[in-house]
Amino acid sequence: MKKLKKIKEKILLHPIMSFLFLTAFFIVLSGVLDLLDASVTYNRINPRTRVYEPTLVTVESLFSLSGLKYIFSSTVSNFVSFTPLSTLLIVLIGIGIMDKSGFLDTMFFLLTKHLAKNKVTFIFVLMCILATITGDLAFVVFIPLAALLFKYGKRNPMVGIVTAFAALSLGYGINLVFSSVDSSLSTYTVLAARDISIGYKISSMGYLYIMLIATIISAGIITYITEAIIAPSIGKYEVEEEEVIEDKEKLTRRELRGLIIAGFGALIYLSIFIYNIIPNVPFGGNLLDYSQARYIDKLFGYDSFFNNGFVFVITFFFVLVGLLYGLGTKEIKNHRDICDALSHSLDGIGKVIVLLFFASIFYNILRYTNIGLLLTAYITNLFDGINFGGIPLIIVVILIGMVTTPLSPVFLNRWMILSGTIVPKMITNGFTPEFAQLLFSVGSSLTYAITPAMAYFVIYIAFMEKYDKEGIGLTKGIKYMMPYTLAISAMWIVLIIIWYLVGLPLGVQTLVVA
């Protein structure tokens, strides 16, 4: 057994080395494809003229002197602007003071003391799926919190991290109402649909019914896989001496006082905040972007307050409740305690930052080469030549979303290419444009969890590395995701086919078949 363990350790690549090898591979591949003059021309709708135009996609080679100059000159700026890095560091400040003050320990105890483990897991998974409406921010908030939730629940934090990442990734295509991603996609869906149906519009509640069912079923499946497969395979967590958590039967008077003070502060903060995102009320709605038409775009649009400031809004909320709780329990006595608590979650974060650095290089390289977009454009042309409809067409569109995600994870980048072909093809076969967008989004989310090129995959790996003493490679991280991916993929395909055969509406004023 010891020899086998040593062999596994030799084979298991550190994530940093994996990202370095992936970076080198795509640099060489870009050079080879450029040497072969690899390029694809596809028809794309011009958003301004609304006319189909031939668009050429070529590979940008990095396997050259100019390519190497670009790599060295852009590495620092790309790392500084790497969103997962800045977002994670800011959110950890807020989580740190909540943890150090004891707020999280008390809150998790209060929430879970009368619930079985599987019920706690189900509720948490449900929260993760619903939180995807906020976009990528959910990854940096829920993954660290998942580790602490399971840790204070006397369970392995890695199980919590795996569960959170699976729910967030596979839930990325599940939203009861339009998310900011759905809204961006719908712009190109409508453009493609109007080529056939002038004046076409998409309802922001267009997927409500099917998403409601998918949310509940997905939460149940993810919970079952976590408890039946992942938790037993990961095993128990070896707690360090300084991490030992004391058992308690009930809250002390100090803890109750701290919760009351923190709860009162949170209520005031949230009331002010919520009032300022309600449109058309006296002195309210100040945080909305009124240049947008849809409410979700007013809230999460590119130039909205949320898009630019929501990370700090969440972090300040965490700091507020952690600080008020600490003052109430007298765990925080002076300004030095406050400063120490703010940096608590950043202790020992050096490995995470180094991993983020090498990941940022890989993401930049892959995006710059256009290899993912080249594949998407090639598949678009292949799809344009198929002549079948019905269930085979449904499955093909889902597969297109799944296949194109690993090399080009950003939904919008691919839909700008695919929509001009997929939407008209679906319409001519009797399907609605909303259904076409749904199939693409669902397919894309099904391989999101097993895509190292997805920017927030590195957050998942980084926190697994933090808690796994033997280390975890990219392949092991993907291995944990595979049961979830396979099960949710089967669920979605069966659900969509049933929905199509029965002829149920997708949501409010939205049908599968036109």
Can you tag this structure with a few keywords?
mainly alpha; two-stranded antiparallel ribbon; 67% helix
| Amount of beta strand | under 5%
Fraction in helix: 55-70%
Q: How many structural domains?
A: 1
Number of helices: 21
- Lateral strand order in the biggest sheet: 1-2
Q: Span between N and C termini? A: 61 Å
Number of strands: 2
Explain what this protein looks like in three dimensions.
This protein has one domain. A two-stranded antiparallel ribbon has the order 1-2. The protein contains 21 helices and two strands. The model has no long low-confidence stretch (mean pLDDT 88). Helices cover 67% and strands 3% of the residues. β1 and β2 (52-58) form a beta hairpin. It has 514 residues and is mostly helical. It has helices at 2-11, 15-35, 65-80, 83-100, 103-112, 117-131, 137-152, 157-170, 180-194, 208-234, 253-275, 295-300, 305-329, 335-342, 350-369, 371-384, 390-404, 411-428, 433-446, 457-467, 474-502; strands spanning 39-45, 52-58.
Task: Give the topology.
Blueprint: H1 2-11, H2 15-35, E1 39-45, E2 52-58, H3 65-80, H4 83-100, H5 103-112, H6 117-131, H7 137-152, H8 157-170, H9 180-194, H10 208-234, H11 253-275, H12 295-300, H13 305-329, H14 335-342, H15 350-369, H16 371-384, H17 390-404, H18 411-428, H19 433-446, H20 457-467, H21 474-502
Summarize the structure.
The protein is mainly α.
